[in-house]
Amino acid sequence: MSRLYLQLLRLVALLPLLAATAAAQNTTDICSLLSSRLPARVSFPGNPVYNLSRTSYYSGFERALSPGCIFRPENATEVSQFVKLVAANSENGKGGKYGNSNQSTPKFAIRGGGHTLFSGAANIDGGVTVDLRAIKSLELSQDRKMASIGGGAIWSDIYPQMVPYNLTVMGGRVPGVGVGGYSTGGGVNFLNQRHGWACDNIYGYEVVLASGEIVYATASSHQDLWLALKGGSNNFGIVTRFDVATFPQGLMWGGVIRFNYTKSNLEAQAKAFRNFMDPKNFDSAADMGIILSYTNKTFGIGNSLFYVDPVANPPVYKAFTSIPSLKPNTLALTNVSNMVVQFGKNLPPFLSQATQLVYSFKNPSSPNLYSKLIQQWETDIQTLASVPGILSQFLIQPQPVSNGTNSLGLKPGDTTATVMSVITAAYTNPADDAAVRRRLAAIVDKHERLLRKQRLYIDFKYLNYADISQDVLGSYGMNVKRRLRQVSRKYDPSGLFQTGVPGGFKVWK
Predict the structure, then answer these.
(1) 106 contact partners, CB below 8 Å, separation of at least 6
(2) Tell me, what's the pLDDT at 417?
(3) Beta strands in 14-64 (DSSP E)
(4) In the predicted model, is pLDDT for residue 18 greater than 80?
(5) DSSP 122
(6) What residues are paired with 247 via a beta bridge?
């Protein structure tokens, strides 16, 4: 073997290390440049602002990541300055091409609420985390039919400001959910059966593109970008303002009711839900879920019942409320803001390790299908009983009715009873990650095989409930994904938001 060949082999072996060193150096350079230009907006490890931001994520997976610095812009102009710095400090001023890795591109994450479970969705190890939460303004239009909301706002902070006007907007149903990720992923809300997905009701987006240019995307200007942001996530730019529809809303009714976990109660729940989902019983004011839980080796049943008209105990829920239940329950007439706070009390304020998987299907002709899905989950989740801190939830709920103004690939106005299920597991130790993920994947695989066998399964996967292992953007259909790629190529020709922002669901993967 020649000496030249051996030298080439050694050089090839060093390439990954050199690339990683270049990436780390670029991160350090970007953080230093940012700090010199916007010193009040950048914090480093050990700084109280940095520590508070890093430890405030909902999931332990995200809290475990340590960015090189955290950038907290206060307006779109500062976001633009950051993006221009990143682009200028990438190799040849380019951020890589359509998902091909470019190690020299400074890596960054975009944070809104930080509520996603999986690692890297809104935080990054060693790169720059752009924490948008200081961009949190709310302004109502003169006629109060539109709300302009900062891209880093938290929905549970927005709702109280709408109450004095007897108005609401379509946002998260529990505290802490951010406007940005929620809205670009679709958006499940109390009003979904009446008005569609939350993203269906967004009039305009103020977006910082990969060039640093700030554009306003609407149905009449940058229409392709406007449509792509309705389900296309973080692939096209950083959204610094959402202009959303407001809706008249005084009191609504709802809360959580619990039941003993018995065979008869499970059968009654399956029958009631199957009938609730029958199109002939459709009620646009009603949205609900069956919540099956496993905690401390004990199973439980709950119903989250919501009705956006001011009607207590609406007849549409009679089949559920007539099942003998545990006392007390939280069913009450209240405003949206209080409903979100009360519903949030059913969830842990933070999770250590956690993962979840989502799938959708058509309502079956018999409730027996629901019973089979529940039995499969019940049997298999118990194999994780020895995992410290294990808790699981199996949520069965209606999928929102799409009005078609989105990129989700769903049929507009379809009220033919589509169900969305989410299986979640939370636990204490990172050492159990692989075992828990394997078990949840096995449960979902069994569910999907059963649904396919009965020709009920549909491909769509809701982004905000999905795990990074699921092909969300592919589930929208090839025509939609092809269109999303065209928008990516047009507005981000160097692929900055593909390679520079490695987290989340990428349109070029």
Answers:
(1) 23, 26, 27, 29, 30, 86, 89, 90, 127, 128, 500
(2) 85
(3) 42-43
(4) no
(5) S
(6) 168
Q: First vs last Cα of the chain: how many Å apart?
A: 39
pLDDT of 477 strictly over 60? yes
| Cβ atoms 76, 208 nearer than 8 A | yes
Please give the structure tokens belonging to residue 453.
């066998």
Task: Please give the model's pTM, rounded to 2 decimal places.
Answer: 0.93
Statement: residue 98 has pLDDT above 70: no
The 10s digit of each residue's pLDDT in 187-222 is 999 999 999 999 999 999 999 999 999 999 999 999
Within 10 A of 20 (CB to CB), how many other CB atoms are there? 12
Q: Give dist(CA 14, CA 10) in Å, integer.
A: 6
Q: Let me know: does 258 contact 314? Beta carbons within 8 Å.
A: no
From the number of C-beta atoms within 10 Å of its C-beta (0-12, 13-18, 19+), residue 6 rates as: exposed
Distance between CA atoms of residues 238 and 119, nearest Å: 19
Q: Are 404 and 444 in contact (CB under 8 A)?
A: no
Query: pLDDT-based confidence at 16, cuts 50/70/90?
Result: very low
CB of 209 closer than 8 Å to CB of 495? no
Alpha-carbon torsion 264, 269, 275, 281, what sign?
positive
Encoded amino acid at 6, one letter? L
Q: In this predicted structure, what is the pLDDT of residue 22? A: 44
Pairing mode, if any, of strands 214-218 and 167-168?
Answer: unpaired
Q: Which two tokens stand for residue 204?
A: 């305009």
